Amino acid sequence: MDYSRPHSIEVPESDIGYHFGTLLDTLEGVDVIFSVAGEKFHAHKLVLAARSSFFRSEFFDHESDEEKNETGTGDEIKEIVIDDMDPVVFKAVLHFMYRDNLVNDDELMASSSDCSIFDSLAGKLMAAADKYELPRLRLLCESYLCKHVSVNSVATTLALADRYHAIELKSVCLKFAAENLSAVIRTEGFDYLKDNCPSLQSEILRTVAGCEEQCSSGVKSQSVWAQLSDGGDTSGRRVRPRV
């Protein structure tokens, strides 16, 4: 005899990030303090070591036998000075390490509205991800920056991606710049590449050449260089020069 199966039971998404975040907020069991430009941040060595090979090495790989034997026997908490990072950036790093996500978009966007991509919170988090060996944090930053790539920002975003080994973001920027080249070369960001990262300019042009080869099969397409001289972009649109 066949019996009908019971209805499926939905399992909520993991809430481990919420509980670890609560652990950070309540400061229960903290055993390390970070001093960042005068601000103090409490944390847990085991959590940081589990999330980052950098901190695992910092806290445990170089710990002496004497220090290991003293673990848990005293009330003194180790304090570490961070002198190459802003407090808001380190706070966002801890937020990620405990909650496994970025701070909200309002914080990320507010930080980048009046500054270069390198000085934005997202840009500085990319640097922190590289320093602390946090590939998932880097990928989250790549995803965020990818959504905000524009003609004016793509060149400097490309430079940022290249500096911090953000492979996927770099690929997106190269393709976007190639598709909108005549507009991109009129931006201050492209001038930045010319002065600081000439090799990236060459990569953009090689990407343009690759796009032309793909488009040339079966379709009569105008040369990108002809489009540039004619005031258009690589998609064939007319672009009004900046005054």
From TrEMBL:
SUPFAM superfamilies associated with the record: POZ domain (SSF54695)
Stored Pfam families: BACK_BPM_SPOP, BTB
Entry's Gene Ontology BP terms: cellular response to salt stress; protein ubiquitination
Pathway given in the UniProt record: Protein modification; protein ubiquitination
Family the UniProt entry places it in: Belongs to the Tdpoz family.
Known role: May act as a substrate-specific adapter of an E3 ubiquitin-protein ligase complex (CUL3-RBX1-BTB) which mediates the ubiquitination and subsequent proteasomal degradation of target proteins.
Protein name according to UniProt: BTB/POZ and MATH domain-containing protein 4
Organism: Zea mays
Lineage, highest ranks first: Eukaryota, Viridiplantae, Streptophyta, Embryophyta, Tracheophyta
